[in-house]
């Protein structure tokens, strides 16, 4: 009798296990279904990329006065052999489009370019003088970066060429397989006060050539929005340096911005990057995103909320606040520790991933990066950049790489110390000589070909010291893929032996084509080179009950509000 009961229990247990396996094979496992997550992003500060058309340089703008001329304005005080520039340097749509094939071949699916709207035609004469290595200084600077909008309805004349306006650029990028991410600003216009004499364009706002607002070179406290119609678009208190502070509570401002950006979106924009998002109220972004998506359903947007506290930037991602993703500053802070000169261990990244509990609507839709134009570039060795790219292109999130990082350009340099220096065609043509470039191309192209790395759940096995081991699992709508990621940022080769949650089958290494046959209850053993990565892929459904249980927990991750 006892033996019969034992046999029945054994059979029942086996049937339950088989039932669990069958259920797992039909269950959905994914980090995100956002289509844009398929595309790594290459970020270009357009004026500093490539001058494809010297005919649009506008070298005479600002006149002969050294205080206002706009082209080629070196920052004073540079050490010998160093340089920085706050004038226009000629980068344009033609230079960008000429290198679309280069960007696509490198493994990217989207290009983020800086704002395209009309900016002032002179250098700013107010504010604090720009100095070598300084910050929040604007005297002597021009709008080469695009963030000082004067007429949000007109294209800045430094960018197009005959036959190549913005619509033609986005169409050309699309022919190369690249989406367009447009950088937009809603918080501010141009510098607007402290000028010795009022300058044309500065502090003014136009709608397709018609003046709608003017700061009149008055300090914010001197504005009178209630009685002066030219002041009604502005807050009467300062925000960022001398920039005009647009009134996010004024419906006219909302209409102005939605109208302007709808115009550019209609010319081929696939996603929006929103500058200084945390400087405006959450209800504004809810209303703005609703109006944009009413015209373009599903438009992906991500904002710049420059804060290393996840709790402070996460509210932008919540549906009730507009459902706008953000750049992952908290993870960026730790990446600088792990891949920069200090060489911290992978464990420093763990608590910034928020895979099980966290404040974000969805951590898999965050834009992951290690530097950009508003902070010092990553200060790392070639190997540090290679390791950082191995992490960015395999871990959760949508990777963003700042132009020139594929060769370690201006590493460690801040704004006004070389961060935004001109890159140029010569450096692009020589990029393949860089080991950073070669390894980035390998891992970026692997991500582009591997859905599990783009949208799969991340299940960590080991994040410690120089070693990282984790799964990415994607199972949805008939597509089934498990990726096993092995990263070694050490100076010597490292042995990896993985048994936990490992399914039997034929695992294909995505970077070099190696094939490993894993038997039932077997393990995968391999050597990862110094500063190397291996990504083994199994195109099969989840069949292990213990793996399914872990994935079920990740799918039920709670969002803390």
TrEMBL record:
Q: Which SMART domains match?
A: Aamy
Q: Name one GO molecular function term.
A: transferase activity
Task: Give any single GO term for biological process.
Answer: carbohydrate metabolic process
This chain's source organism reads Lysobacter silvisoli
InterPro entries reported for this sequence: GH, GH13_cat_dom, Glyco_hydro_b
This one is known as Cyclomaltodextrin glucanotransferase
- The signal peptide stretch is 1-24
Domain of life (superkingdom) = Bacteria
Cofactor names from the entry are: Ca(2+)
């Amino acid at each position: 009798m006892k033996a019969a009961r034992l046999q029945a229990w054994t059979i029942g247990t086996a049937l339950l296990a088989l039932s669990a396996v069958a259920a797992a094979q039909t269950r959905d496992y994914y980090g995100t279904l956002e289509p844009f997550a398929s595309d790594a992003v290459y970020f270009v500060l357009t004026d500093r990329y490539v001058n494809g058309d010297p005919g649009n340089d506008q070298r005479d703008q600002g006149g002969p006065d050294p205080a206002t001329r706009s082209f080629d304005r070196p920052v004073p005080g540079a050490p010998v052999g160093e340089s920085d520039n706050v004038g226009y340097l000629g980068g344009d749509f033609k230079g960008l489009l000429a290198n679309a094939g280069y960007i696509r071949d490198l493994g990217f699916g989207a290009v983020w370019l800086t704002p395209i709207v009309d900016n002032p035609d002179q250098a700013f004469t107010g504010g604090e003088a720009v100095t070598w290595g300084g910050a929040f200084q604007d005297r002597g600077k021009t709008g080469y970066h695009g963030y000082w909008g004067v007429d949000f309805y007109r294209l800045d004349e430094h960018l197009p060429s005959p036959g190549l306006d913005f619509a033609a650029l986005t169409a050309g990028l699309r022919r190369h397989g690249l989406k367009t991410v447009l950088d937009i600003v809603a918080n501010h216009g141009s510098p607007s006060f402290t000028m010795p004499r009022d300058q044309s364009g500065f502090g003014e706002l136009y709608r397709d050539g018609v003046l709608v607002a003017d700061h009149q070179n008055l300090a914010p406290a001197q504005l009178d929005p209630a009685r002066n119609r030219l002041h009604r678009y502005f807050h009467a208190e300062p925000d960022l340096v001398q920039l005009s502070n647009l009134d996010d509570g004024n419906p006219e401002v909302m209409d102005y911005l939605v109208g302007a950006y709808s115009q550019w979106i209609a010319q081929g924009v696939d996603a929006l990057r929103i500058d200084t998002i945390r400087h405006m109220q959450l209800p504004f972004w809810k209303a703005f995103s609703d109006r944009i998506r009413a015209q373009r359903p599903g438009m992906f947007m991500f904002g710049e909320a420059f804060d290393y506290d996840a709790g402070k930037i996460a509210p932008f991602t919540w549906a009730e606040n507009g459902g706008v993703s953000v750049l992952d500053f908290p993870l960026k802070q730790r990446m600088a520790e792990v891949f920069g000169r200090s060489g911290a261990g992978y464990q420093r990244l763990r608590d910034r991933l928020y895979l099980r509990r966290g404040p974000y609507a969805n951590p898999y839709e965050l834009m992951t990066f290690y530097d950009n134009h508003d902070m010092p570039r990553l200060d790392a060795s070639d190997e540090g950049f290679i390791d950082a790219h191995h992490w960015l292109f395999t871990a959760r999130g949508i990777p963003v790489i700042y132009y020139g990082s594929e060769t370690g350009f201006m590493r460690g340099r801040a704004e006004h110390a070389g961060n935004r220096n001109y890159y140029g065609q010569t450096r692009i043509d020589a990029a393949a000589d860089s080991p950073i470039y070669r390894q980035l191309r390998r891992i970026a192209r692997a991500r582009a070909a591997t859905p599990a790395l783009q949208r799969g759940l991340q299940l960590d096995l080991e994040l410690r010291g120089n070693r990282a081991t984790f799964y990415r699992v994607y199972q949805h709508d008939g597509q089934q893929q498990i990726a096993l990621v092995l990263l070694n940022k050490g100076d010597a080769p490292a042995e990896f032996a993985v048994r936990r949650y490992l399914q039997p089958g034929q695992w294909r290494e995505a970077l070099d084509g190696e094939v490993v046959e894993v038997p039932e209850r077997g393990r995968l053993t391999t050597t990862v080179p110094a500063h190397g990565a291996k990504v083994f892929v199994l195109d099969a459904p989840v069949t292990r009950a213990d793996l399914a249980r872990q994935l079920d927990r990740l799918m039920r991750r709670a969002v803390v509000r």
